[in-house]
Write a structure and sequence with these properties.
Blueprint (H helix, E strand, L loop, with lengths): L1 H5 L11 E5 L5 E2 L7 E9 L19 E10 L7 E10 L2
Antiparallel strand pairs: 1-2, 1-3, 3-4, 4-5
Length: 93
């Protein structure tokens, strides 16, 4: 998440899944052959309630905040392995 927060906030939600690779020490690497963990990053709008009691509409965050899914798989290249999924919000500060 730190790397994503350091980047410029996207003007539109990315539709493609982005891949990042990490070593066994958790260090970001650009070389998948050095990696133990593969992280698939996807972006979605925040789920917002459609209406509130009394018929008023709920406020929406618009393009200022969205949900990020981080799906970690390891070991890299294995047909079977472990998967952990984390969700976080990313905001345009």
């Amino acid at each position: 998440m730190g790397k994503l927060r350091d980047e410029a906030y996207p003007a539109a939600l990315p539709e493609e899944v982005r891949l990042m690779f990490f070593t066994d020490q958790g260090t970001l690497t650009g070389n998948p052959t050095d990696a133990v963990y593969r992280c698939e990053i996807s972006h979605r709008p925040l789920p917002v309630e459609a209406a509130r009691s009394g018929g008023s509409n709920a406020p929406t965050p618009g393009h200022h905040c969205h949900l990020v899914e981080l799906k970690f798989r390891w070991p890299v290249g294995a047909s079977a392995g472990d998967v952990r999924i984390f969700h976080a919000t990313l905001a345009n500060d």
